[in-house]
């Protein structure tokens, strides 16, 4: 008769847990070492190719042919992984990242191949830093590049300048105050909803909950989902906040009101009431004042100024779009703002 599998006692469970943690840590260390070696190897292959092409000036004119011949020879000798496109990426890898020591072991070769598609060094540096800081997968990195996160952040601040460009390039997103959380517009292309389809606020809310992981990615770092339709009771009257999050970096509740219309003063008054309630009734002693975000289809600066001005609470209004924004248009907007500031002598 086969031996019976008996339930583990508590002591054995603790031993299994301790061994499990050791194995997970060891596998993680091995994977990290393998990744570091791979990045170093590909960087050095790129260096050898670049130096070979520069040895005889004429060879630089026949780069494509050189890579084609190298690809055939290396594939025959070492197997897959040496396509002409991959060798071209290795060469660009070396030429773009001048020091191998500056490469992040937290990013894979596939991450760096995505980053190589960005020609602007400040923008590329931003996405590299933020991919590390936010632990983006390759797919998430590609999505943030495609959604023009860099340009959206600059435009969200309203006074894009060279200092902001350099700060984003050097450090990524720094979250020190509520305004640092805001993006404009927010991009909800992952919902798959046609841009011209009429939609109820409840439908938008339901769709965002169904795609909560992607919504959290779009919101940014530090967000934790609390729930939808969170009840606020004042004088025996029940009100409901559309969506509530908690940002662990700012240690603050973030209340989001969804509007399928343009920004209205009534929306500002509504969320202001909710924030007062949370500050008084929900916040713990070590929580910071709650933050309110109104997500709407349109807003104009004058309405926003009068609706949100003078309020003691942190309330922001941002647009959302259901399709990827026009990348070239956003880049042009940022460049126009920077050029205008430069002409006015307000750049540092």
Element order: H for helix, E for strand: HHHHHHHHHEHHEEEHEHEH
Q: What is the strand arrangement across the widest sheet?
A: 1-6-5-4-3-2
Number of strands: 6
Radius of gyration: 26 Å
Q: N- to C-terminal separation?
A: 83 Å
Low-confidence stretches: none
Biggest sheet record: 6 strands, mixed
Shape: globular
* Helical content band: 40-55%
Total number of helical segments? 14
Supply the helix-strand structural class: alpha/beta
Mean pLDDT: 88
Proportion in β-strands = 5-15%
What does this structure look like?
The longest helix is centred in the N-terminal third of the chain and has 46 residues. The chain is 54% helix and 13% strand. It has 348 residues and is of the alpha/beta class. Strands 1-6-5-4-3-2 form a 6-stranded mixed beta sheet, sandwiched between helices. Helix 1 packs across helix 4 and helix 3 crosses helix 4. The chain has 14 helices and 6 strands.
Topology overview:
Layout: H1 10-55, H2 57-60, H3 63-78, H4 84-96, H5 109-115, H6 121-133, H7 138-146, H8 149-156, H9 162-171, E1 186-187, H10 201-210, H11 212-219, E2 223-234, E3 237-247, E4 252-258, H12 265-282, E5 291-296, H13 301-308, E6 314-321, H14 327-343
Parallel strand pairs: 1-6, 4-5, 5-6
Antiparallel strand pairs: 2-3, 3-4
Helix pairs in contact: 1-4, 3-4, 6-9, 8-14, 10-11, 12-13
């Amino acid at each position: 008769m086969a031996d019976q599998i008996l339930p583990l006692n508590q002591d054995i469970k603790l031993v299994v847990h301790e061994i499990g943690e050791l194995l997970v840590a060891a596998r993680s260390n091995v994977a990290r070492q393998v990744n570091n070696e791979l990045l170093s190897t590909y960087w050095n292959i790129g260096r050898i190719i670049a130096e070979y092409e520069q040895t005889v000036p004429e060879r630089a004119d026949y780069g494509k042919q050189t890579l084609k011949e190298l690809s055939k020879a290396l594939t025959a000798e070492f197997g897959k992984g040496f396509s002409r496109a991959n060798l071209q990426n290795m060469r660009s890898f070396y030429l773009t990242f001048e020091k191998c020591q500056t490469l992040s072991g937290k990013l894979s070769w596939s991450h760096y191949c995505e980053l190589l598609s960005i020609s602007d060094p400040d923008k590329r540096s931003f996405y590299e830093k933020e991919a590390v800081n936010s632990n983006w997968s390759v797919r998430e990195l590609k999505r943030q590049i495609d959604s023009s996160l860099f340009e959206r952040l600059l435009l969200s601040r309203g006074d894009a300048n060279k200092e902001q460009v350099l700060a984003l390039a050097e450090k990524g997103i720094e979250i020190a105050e509520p305004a640092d959380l805001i993006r404009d517009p927010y991009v909800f292309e992952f919902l798959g909803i046609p841009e011209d389809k009429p939609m109820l606020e409840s439908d938008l809310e339901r769709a965002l909950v169904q795609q909560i992981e992607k919504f959290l990615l779009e919101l940014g770092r530090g967000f934790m989902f609390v729930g939808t339709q969170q009840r606020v009771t004042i004088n025996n009257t029940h009100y409901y906040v559309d969506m509530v999050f908690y940002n662990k970096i700012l240690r603050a509740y973030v209340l989001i009101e969804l509007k399928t219309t343009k920004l209205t003063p009534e929306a500002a008054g509504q969320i202001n009431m909710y924030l007062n309630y949370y500050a008084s009734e929900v916040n713990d002693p070590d929580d910071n004042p709650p933050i309110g975000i109104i997500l709407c289809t349109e807003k104009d600066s004058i309405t926003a100024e009068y609706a949100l001005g003078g309020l003691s609470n942190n309330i922001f209004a941002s647009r959302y779009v259901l399709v990827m924004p026009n990348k070239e248009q956003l880049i042009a907007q940022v460049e126009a703002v920077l050029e205008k500031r430069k002409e006015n002598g307000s750049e540092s």
